[in-house]
Amino acid sequence: MSRMRIAFDLSFTHTEGKWASPGSWVGADYPDLGMFTELAMAAERGGVDMLFFGDGVGIPDTWQGSMDAAIEYGIQWPRQDMSPFIAAMAQATSHIGFGLTYSSTYMHPFYVARLLNSLDHVTGGRIAFNVVASGRVSDAANYGLDALPDHDGRYERMEEFVHVCRALWDSVEPDAIVRDRATGRFADPAKVHRVDHDGPYFKVAGPLPSVPSPQGHPVLVQAGASPRGIAASAAFADVVFGMGGHLPSQVSHRERLDAALVAAGRDPADVGILWAIQVLVAATEAEAKSRKDQMAQMLPLDAVGTYLSYNSGFDFSTLPASFALAEVAEAIAAAQATQAGFVQRLIAQRGSDATMTRAEFFDEGWRWATGYEQTIAGTAEQVADELEQQFAATGERGGFMICNPLSMPGTLNDVIGLLMPELRRRGLVREHYAGTTLRDNLLGR
């Protein structure tokens, strides 16, 4: 029987109003290390496979050309570099893995390869690298760019970036270090190799001046859902991060990824998708639904507009009273912004020829910005029923990336205390960790 892998996405536990919601921390504020360490230990006790941290380096300023609303309402900011936090969390745990995000659009592969090698040592082989092709203008501005690079070009750079990282991780063979005290010979030169990469985007000599890490390569995660993004996933991803909440879109993503994997000469059975979902689990259905209703009050219009505009790369404050979804999608594509997001989900649901009023758009938009649309609320049995159905419909490969819809640590403690035992009772998740590395636990069959 195939078993689900379960990860927690902790990227936004403190943004979009969650910091003030019932069940949130009292007496500690982001980025208090104790908050993350406590959650990591609880998640490991619950058998969670990975804690995941997305990233972005700009404060959203697409909405009305200003970052004021993002600052006022805490939309997608503040964001820390989570690498030192992960190093600390790893010392309090022994099995759970950690997913870390860096941008292939702006970062250099030598720096990232060396950093992740070190983190894999510190964690004992529990690091995943979420490789992203950045699609947000405010992020680009912090790296000296006036506009986003070409959409497909970002994925070409990503593929070269990963190629260089892999070459660097392989540049020192696993048995290169001999440490012969009798002869004073530390390593075998025949097993340390230059890379000498000279490509369109990067020139790197190598080798990596590091000892091979426990996993050799960190687990590679990628989230592209556009045709070019799926091709990149098929080229190198060990596991894919996909958008949940709309089963027909999930089935389509799985089918398109499988076709791309076959075209790339890879076995589709080897690459799972972790579907991003939100869950609210409670002892009774009524309690869970009541918590979900609280989400409607989390964000005012400016905050919703800020969230949607930042993540789509288009200023939705400029929308006319009525418009066609296809026109907005074309404008987003012309700006080289993300081609898989809220507007694309609306098109999947309504069709590209559908028209909407501005009021209808923002009425749907708050559901997306808060995660209301993809939040499954109910008892542990009801939520497990839904996850089991989605898992079967999408090929029983991968599992779920559970995002935080309401508060930290309350919501996630309910997942650990209520949902995980129910999934385990059904045999849908494993009783124990399969091994000591994240590769063992997340990718092993």
TrEMBL record:
InterPro entries in alphabetical order: Diverse_substr_monoxygenases (IPR051260), Luciferase-like_dom (IPR011251), Luciferase-like_sf (IPR036661), NTA_MOA (IPR016215)
Entry superkingdom: Bacteria
Keyword list, A-Z: Flavoprotein, FMN, Monooxygenase, Oxidoreductase
MF terms (GO), sorted A to Z: monooxygenase activity; oxidoreductase activity, acting on paired donors, with incorporation or reduction of molecular oxygen
UniProt keyword annotation of Kinase present: no
Residues that bind FMN: D55, T101, H151, Y155, S226
Family: Belongs to the NtaA/SnaA/DszA monooxygenase family.
Name of the featured protein: Methylene-tetrahydromethanopterin reductase
Domain Luciferase-like: 24-395
Keyword Magnesium: no
